[in-house]
What does this fold into?
Amino acid sequence: MPFFDFKKKKIFYHLIEKSTQQAMIFIHGAGESSYIWKNQMSNLMHDHTLIAFDLPSHGKSSEFKKISIEIYVDVIKALVEHLQLNKIILVGHSLGGAIAQTYYFKYREDVAALILCATGARLRVSPMIFDSIQNDYSEFLKILPVGAFYRKTLKDIIEDFVDEMSKTKAEVAYQDFSFCNEFDMLKKIRQIRVPSLIICGNADKLTPPKYSQFFKAKISNSTLIIIKNAGHMVMLEKPEEINLAIQDFLKNNRL
It folds into this structure.
């Protein structure tokens, strides 16, 4: 399993390498890990190097005393430099979408395109989520699927996701949701100038379709795909449809 050093700590990443310096980097959401992108890493038809990584204090990456969106962005920059990548396509889910947007505005010369999946330009979080994580993280994980998945999603998909998320410490998940709650790019979104694919599930309760429709209205070169019978974890619920949407986007934009 490959790791790279960042601030004397280890960051885990999964790499599928092609003979090109162009790459797609998949960024997971709050409390998650690179696990959520397993169906894209294994089944996406592509000509790009694919990279999914665990943010600091998540998954197989080292624990950090301090985490922030800015540190998450710096980790991606360090990964780009470590692998000597040229242009990158950032694929971000939920908090990962916020990280992708932040990276774009800090290092826009690196970014060839954005894929914003079940995310928003502002990500307000219900106080009930914070209370639930603080008071009983195990109970929070039990009720999370109600908001995160379409009601007919297969039980095995939900159980595997909850099992993976249970490996993230409660305080880390709490901080991640705090980063979401503080995030606000509403006034900057129209400045995005790269091709952008916007994806959401029609039954997403955490980042409803109106969030994605806002992106579509503000980003001039954008494509909106709304996946039927899917919730917030659309990449796990409808992997084939997500992969086809990404493949069509790459082809149509000659990426």
User: Anything to note?
Assistant: Residues 121 and 169 are 26 Å apart (CA to CA). The chain has a mean pLDDT of 95. The two ends are 28 Å apart (CA to CA). The domain at 3-252 is CATH 3.40.50.1820 (Rossmann fold).
